Amino acid sequence: MKYSYVSHLICPKCNKTYDHNEVNQLCSCGSPLLVKYNLDELAKDVSKEDLVGRSASLWRYHELLPVVDEKNVVSLGEGMTPLLPMSAVGKDMDIPNLHMKDEGIIPTGTFKARGAAVGVSKAKELGVKELAMPTNGNAGAAWALYAARGGIKSTIVMPVDAPKITRNEVAVSGADLYLVDGLISDAGKMVGQAVKEYELFDASTLKEPYRIEGKKTMGLEIAEQMGWKMPDVILYPTGGGVGIIGIYKALNELKELGWVEGKLPRLVAVQAEGCAPIVKAWEEKKSVSEFWNDSETVAFGINVPKALGDFLVLEAVYQTDGCAIAIEDQALLEEQQKIAELEGAFICPEGAATFVAARRLREQGWIKENEVVVALNTGAGIKYPDTVKVDVPVLQKNEFLQK
Amino acid sequence: MKYSYVSHLICPKCNKTYDHNEVNQLCSCGSPLLVKYNLDELAKDVSKEDLVGRSASLWRYHELLPVVDEKNVVSLGEGMTPLLPMSAVGKDMDIPNLHMKDEGIIPTGTFKARGAAVGVSKAKELGVKELAMPTNGNAGAAWALYAARGGIKSTIVMPVDAPKITRNEVAVSGADLYLVDGLISDAGKMVGQAVKEYELFDASTLKEPYRIEGKKTMGLEIAEQMGWKMPDVILYPTGGGVGIIGIYKALNELKELGWVEGKLPRLVAVQAEGCAPIVKAWEEKKSVSEFWNDSETVAFGINVPKALGDFLVLEAVYQTDGCAIAIEDQALLEEQQKIAELEGAFICPEGAATFVAARRLREQGWIKENEVVVALNTGAGIKYPDTVKVDVPVLQKNEFLQK
Fold it and tell me: What is the value of ipTM here, to two decimals?
């Protein structure tokens, strides 16, 4: 029995293959690479019942992950996040079987931890000594901290306007932190130069093949937590889109293994109205997106004007009869408040967008009343304290509390 | 088979008993009440092997929790937080078997979620419609959010200087939030008045019996995660002390059930030098503490000048041959940084204090090299962003990144 059944890397555009035992970034054709596994062999050796009793982390799926030797695993205990019934909000929007996969309950407070855990572990296995990446905040925080745990140096470049909490996370990790008076695209250019000049490993989104494998575990967990049944609909806040690509990949692998059966869930790419390149492409029935100019949204995690993996996101949406939908900032902020009041969950703006999307799609009849729906919340609200407005008077000592 | 084996409440001071089916606060003698279980019956009906495959939340221990009917459980998926090996920091302080129980990976980002989950669930079971509490921040945030999920109204009073993130958490929950220009003791007086005036349930620390039961699950999880073996030492950051009381109670219950054997771990109460009433009492071999005047520490979660349950904390320390130790702010902030750099974990100042304590106790020989040691981190560093100082230059667009 092997720890991992990884076989090789493949380019989804030109089908060129690569060796997973060597450091690889993009395909020579410029496309991101995907990881392949010996699923036939895995299916013979392992059954889904073997997972029972394993540790409550994403490493319970180690056979379906790319790390060959367990000693290279760099973990802070990430994964097996709660899949919560959302009965009150579900009643409010007439979706009784509404659930939330809560990715706020994970090291560093966002789903970025999954990609960082698997990406850093594989980088360690391949002997990487130093990595670099641009970030809007959460990904950089996760990669910097996991790299520190893995003994890998990191260089993180972040817009000066990125949230202060994530800046502090990077700083405390001991990473080389650079702030740029510009956008993440400016940070990306600097990283590109530094990667060449200093021969660093480029950990930018989808420029290394293993972040998808980490994100994939969200799909594996949803299936296992639902008793190896798939929901009818999964809604995902889509910026770079690695999560939706990963979930689609996961569910296809589970089908091939025979661990789940039937039709895949309809995958919904949820974007912000101020940055909706995937929605536009989907509406125009295109297979790639165009750069979205002057993008703007409070949900900064999905402020991605052009994703490197856009064609993979759109494939996942088309192949599952899903859809793409854009939400206004005002609506998602109101939904964030409503979910806290009705469900006690303080979620992030990106996550709130998926609930507005569910509400709208139910109103339009695209989601049926009896369908099982999972909305992904990608991060903890506490990482975005400024999205909540507080205006209460200050009492003096010994003043009587008037209700 | 019953969902809970709860039997009654008992006063640890005067032994008076109370019915767990009725709303109770303090004993008539003024002491906090403790929850008792039919452990003999539980031991006959349930074995620790029955836990395998249960959900990764603290409700896996429902037989040892006070909620009688599962339908009253109010959960956001809390519990089964990671127990992480801390090899690098352990090597640095010559404790190779050093572990961290990371309570940052839980809804609301601190261990307060455990007390709130169980406390709110039992309040719901008892028909409570509205609760009130004073808070320095994290407890109020947790109780307000869990109360919202449980359909219970809440009134939270908080010093105006309490951390903004926790203020926002309370506000977003829809709770009645009051800020007071004073200390938590001033907030406590206001809550006391409001509880009487408006007939509210008083959810102040240890004024209801069930918060301890939630915190207890940290002890249950440590035992299970170590394969039903107990560590030699557990270090706990001690403010109100509910956690250390709970862990002591948990391990005693597990011993009585026969699920663990041998000597209890030595429990260490870790406090801040600027607020160390338990340490002073322990040094003077007293069974209760005195009010600590002008208390001050950056680790605001352990800024508690006089704990209602001080005698229970001291009992836990004495009975396990533990000790109490105070740490300076400067040392715990340096340790916080070191742990992020060496282990990739951004922990809270209170948690960092336990690592300084382990370091000192090892230097003194009180902890032996081969002992198995667990340090409790009670919250995520992201809830305390201001404990990290960041001073990096801002680059201009297109500037070359000089390493």
Answer: 0.96
